[in-house]
Amino acid sequence: MNTIAISTPSPTELVMSRTFDAPKALVWAAHTQAEHLRHWWGRGNPLDVTIDFRVGGTWRFVETADGQEHPFRGEFLEISAPDTFTWTFEYEPMAGHVAVDTYVFTEEAGRTTVTSTTRFDTQADRDGMMQSGMEQGANQSYAALDAYLIKIG
């Protein structure tokens, strides 16, 4: 099974990396377009997606799982298509704990690696995220993306 490699290069950073058997253009589209995001983000659970993919644009995803809604939101800070984008990330029930995620897409021999670096305000926020089940959820989401990429590829 292909899983995410995770590291913590500093007390306030979390780096995750995962490779997909798909070209960069397709993996980029899956991360930046609503019609693709709703099929895999949030572990493949039903997902409402609102996204204005431009610098200064906002996004909001609401995952429905176990009879509950889990809303996330943020703003796009930087975009350099199809290589990288940076957004803020906030879980609405824990408002005020805003992280900044930078995603980098690299392709080699038709396979694309996505590396995300998340910067938190405090080590407590980073550690809280890591203890929240984030790793399992991210692996489930990327497994759903694997299946979706095969379907549309």
TrEMBL record:
It holds the Pfam family AHSA1. It comes from the Bacteria. Residues 21-149 form the Activator of Hsp90 ATPase homologue 1/2-like C-terminal domain. Belongs to the AHA1 family. This is Uncharacterized protein YndB with AHSA1/START domain. It comes from Actinoplanes digitatis.
